[in-house]
Amino acid sequence: MEDKYSSKISELTEPASPFEKFAKKVFDKLISEGVPPLPSYYRVYFFNMLEEEPAEFRKQIYEIISLEESNDLEKDFEKEKKLKLSFKYTKELLQHSALIYKTSKSLKELLIKQLQEIEHITSPKILQKIIAQFENKLDLISSKLEKENKVVKDLFSKTVEIIKDIESHSTFDSRYGLYNKNYFIKLLEKEINLISKFSHISSLVVVKLNDKILNNLSQKGKIVANRSLAKMLLRTSRRTDEIGYLGDNIFGMLLKHTDKIGAMKTIERISDMLLNATIFMEGEEIELSIVAGIVEIKEKKEAEEYVKYAISYMKEAEKEEVLYKGD
């Protein structure tokens, strides 16, 4: 079994750091026991063997892992709590709205009844008495309606606040089926932190359809064309790549452990696939072409700053009528 999975193990460079030595130790354990070194198996062996390491080393490893892993479960839990609270408020809102409707209906029935009662009354005193009684009933109903309206207004405000909060923490752009800008920026920030820790290189790519194409399309046409580009980005991306919609017809790609050369090849591949694709809009065949900006992520900077640089390169590329520009 050893030859099957590790024919070139002896040629590997000897690991330098304690972390690298431990990683190789896990890999060697998999090989020695004849277990395929797949990610799922490696993860099990990694954490099992980590428990046998000194406490200080375990602490360092878990600190590193915390940079990579997000608290998605906790976020989902908080989101579910907010959704349940929103449903609770919505249910109460409907109940109080139904009560207002019922009260308003009762008011209408009361008015009809009073009109019928006074239709044939000629005595001013009796008429005055009935009117006074009617006014008292109106005051009670009005007070009840005012109270219910206040409750409805409060519940509506709470529901709107929760919905806005959920939207602000959403991760998904429903129009294009990608991450939204807020979440993409968070992923970019996390990768920047990892790079500052491990000193590898990743690349940020921003890409959009050429303005000469977009400017000739209706708003609906732009959405259709952008969806075609979004599907192409998803189709050509690796499992480790992150793709998001940044707004203004611009898409972002975070290519992990990929330098500028690799990013250039990615853009060239996407461009070739788009040129070979046939897209019809409103009965006409159109050719889609893209322009991109590339920035290597090598140092600690703000995520928004990297995005700004990449967009400036993209605009420069479009001005010079080339496929991409970058640092």
Automatic annotation (TrEMBL):
PROSITE patterns linked to this entry: GGDEF
GGDEF domain segment(s): 202-327
Coiled-coil blocks: none
Protein name: Diguanylate cyclase
SMART domains: GGDEF
Alphabetized InterPro entries for the sequence: GGDEF_dom, Nucleotide_cyclase, Rev_trsase/Diguanyl_cyclase
One Pfam family in the UniProt entry: GGDEF
